[in-house]
Amino acid sequence: MRLLLLTIACWSHMALAASVGVIDVEAVLASSAQAKKARAQWQAELAPVEADIQRLIDSLRALPEDDQSARRDVTIQINQLQQQAQEQLTQWENEFLTEQLPILERLVIEIADENNLDLVVRADAVVWGRANVNYSDDLLARYNQP
Hints:
By secondary structure, the protein is mainly α. The protein has helices spanning 2-17, 25-31, 33-62, 68-114, 136-144, and strands at 20-23, 119-122.
């Protein structure tokens, strides 16, 4: 029994001595140069669809209130274009994440190795932590390097 208590006490001490780092992956991705460039490209590619949606909205406003059939048809067209645009945007976002997450993972491992971290956790899983254990800015700086 004493051996078990001693083992638990030693393990608890080792766990407390572990070096932990925190990274806000979502914030790094959102504020990265890569994400800003990708969002600008997506916005440019969706601009014609947005113009079509706006044209349809304008035509809907011009229709008489009592022409319910025409208003319904235009509303359906608007909804279809919005759904297509959202699906395309989701596809681009997923492709971006598929490409970028392995790069971020490699950089996180570099930061962990350089700082002798035993564990790196996502910031959204942390209830409280000191600012000096947050390596998000370091990750963003490395990620933005050409």
